[in-house]
Amino acid sequence: MAREQLQARCDADTVDQIEQYAEEKDIAKSEAMRRMLRAGLRVKGYRDETGENAHIGEGAVRDLSDNPELSKAHILDAVRIVGGASIGLALIYLLLVEIGLI
């Protein structure tokens, strides 16, 4: 994929945060910036992951790992359902024990 150069000026705090992210992910600062820009564009609705801009393979896996909200949303729904049912069953059990039916 051909890439164009994009330049920006950032304050020192932003540069420190980008460098920290790059270091944690063991990637170059330029790759960290690309990932952050993609994530920001996706969040704001400017990046269409289902159209011609969709990419597969290693890049897609990287993007998913950089956007944990995608997986957390589904996991949290499942946790709420299972957790709610478990609490409900525990309360019913305690109620039945309390009134002497068990």
Q: What does the oligomeric state look like here?
A: single chain
The largest sheet is: none
Number of helices: 4
Helix-strand category: mainly alpha
The tally of domains stands at: 2
State the total count of DSSP E strands. 0
Determine the N-to-C terminus distance.
67 Å
User: For the CA atoms, what is the radius of gyration?
Assistant: 23 Å
Average residue pLDDT = 78
Shape: elongated
Low-pLDDT ranges: 52-56
The proportion of residues in beta strands is under 5%
Give the proportion of residues in helices.
55-70%
Order of helices and strands: HHHH
What is the strand and helix layout of this fold?
Elements: H1 12-25, H2 29-43, H3 58-66, H4 69-98
Helix pairs in contact: 1-2
